[in-house]
Amino acid sequence: MILSGMTLDELENLMAEMKATKFRAKQIHNWIYSKSVSSIDEMTNLSKDFREELKNIASVTDTKIKVKQVSKDGTIKYLVEYPDGECVETVLMRFDNRANLTACVSSQVGCAVNCSFCATGKGGFKRNLTYKEIIEQVLTIQRDTGLKVTNIVFMGQGEPLLNLDNVLKALDIFNNDFQIGQRRITISTSGIIPGIERLANTDLQSTLAISLHAPNHELRKELMPIENKYKIDEVKKALMNYIEKTGRRVTVEYILIHGFNDTTQVAKELAYFLHDLKCNVNLIPYNSVIENDYKKPSSNDIMKFKYLIEHSGKKVTVRLERGADIDAACGQLRGKGENVVKGVKGVKGVV
Ligand code: SAH
Ligand code: SF4
Known about the structure:
It contains eleven helices and twelve strands. By secondary structure, it is an alpha/beta fold.
């Protein structure tokens, strides 16, 4: 049995089976989620006999770090390996001016959506992650760095709304067991309408981010095959309904690709498309991925685009590129550890 991912209730049931007190469950819970230990032996406030008894039936984790890379900007990328040999990448980002430690987690092995600009989709879809496998990514980061993650973004590999049961269960555990506030968690989707509709009917306080990337059907379908199934106007309707039901503002993510969707004309069209949508806009300058010929716009073009959207009354941020030297930036996650030569491996406690 694996203790990571167990809730306090589940640990209490386990303690009852072992004829131990409820207080033991609290202690174990604390070792797992706050102190982030890797082994039962480290749970030093449990008696040696009890630890031995527990070790006979359980261990803390079954997830391994296969590769660890540290970027010169402090970003750390882990390739984590699950017992069946499948791997995903998870990224820890730290911003100099903030105390926040943000984990970018994966929700699936690979991705079926296959956007033209993204490395994850290139390898196809393998399988969904279980909620325990999702939370193991954050525990891996905490165990390795000795630090507590404060924010989570579902922006790693995979499409979270195509694995929503596990994502919602993981969210519960992040919230109740890791004590990470729902508002510090963001779920990013390529626009899976049934998932958006389902989220509209929860009382979740987390932010929904929508990967829009284009203001119309023609342009969007060149980037995202999912546009053929869930069309931009229908996605907008689903978002309007989500906003009305939850009262929450959404984040619109928009990749800027030089000469493709970054022109003045497209900016104006985007501003119009968004005018009645309660949203903030996050511009993501394209990060290079070997499989395509897209280019990042110049800083000047980025600023011009930003200005045009701001001018229409939206709050706009430009996403800082993190960890590009170790292929840890948005869209660069492959889950295969192929790019290890560029990074520094095995440096512990660097953050
Ligand atoms: N599947 C979800 C979440 C993971 S991707 C989604 O698509 O929203 C997280 C963000 O990174 C998305 O906005 C995605 O469009 C963006 N992204 C993917 N490839 C990128 C690239 N090459 N450069 C910049 N951003 C990229
Ligand atoms: Fe999948 Fe998101 Fe990458 Fe598109 S951008 S292929 S939805 S992970």
